[in-house]
Amino acid sequence: MFIYFCPILLWFFNLELNPGIRGIWIRPDSNGNKRIVLTNIIRLLIEPLKNIRMWKIKLWDINIFIFYFCCFLFYMFFEHSYNLIKPNNLTEWNKFYMKIMHL
Fold first, then answer.
1. Residue 88 lies in a domain
2. Are strands 26-28 and 34-36 parallel, antiparallel or unpaired?
3. Is residue 100 one of the residues assigned to a domain?
4. Is 39 among the domain residues?
5. What distance in Å separates the CA atoms of residue 88 and residue 98, rounded to the nearest whole number?
6. What's the whole-model pTM score?
7. How many domains does the chain have?
8. Which domain holds residue 42?
9. Is 34 in contact with 44 (CB distance < 8 Å)?
10. What's the 3-state SS for the chain?
11. Which residues pair with 26 in a beta bridge?
């Protein structure tokens, strides 16, 4: 379950830590105190559904759907790579080689 929320949390931190788009959800108020403004995050979540410019390559780093899809592909790639090297998925030749090397 956590794996589904992890890309969203990464996206939140990317919005604040990316030098090109800082200050999306932590902003100074009129007194200069830093405040968390969650409405800006909600607006950015909805904006790709309303504005076609958000799907241009320049804005992919703030598009939650693209970010989530890339995280999903990254996760699937590494999960697949891990499954290929698990000992129970080795070919017969690899098993033979492992047996010889451990003698």
1. no
2. antiparallel
3. no
4. yes
5. 12
6. 0.67
7. 1
8. 2-78
9. no
10. CHHHHHHHHHHHHHHHHCCCCCCCCEEECCCCCEEECHHHHHHHHHHHHHCHHHHCHHHHHHCHHHHHHHHHHHHHHHHHHHHHHCHHHCCHHHHHHHHHHCC
11. 36
* Burial of residue 68, with CB atoms counted within 10 A of its CB: 0-12 exposed, 13-18 middle, 19 or more buried: middle
| Structure tokens belonging to residue 33 | 């105190």
Q: Which class for 86: exposed (0-12), middle (13-18), buried (19 or more C-beta within 10 A)?
A: exposed
Query: Which residues contact residue 12 at a Cβ distance below 8 angstroms, ignoring those fewer than 6 apart?
Result: 25, 41
What would the pLDDT profile of 6-35 be if each residue is shown by its tens digit? 888 888 888 888 888 877 888 888 898 998
The answer as to whether 95 is a domain residue is no
Place of tokens 């200069």: 32
Output the CA torsion sign for 57, 62, 65, 70: positive
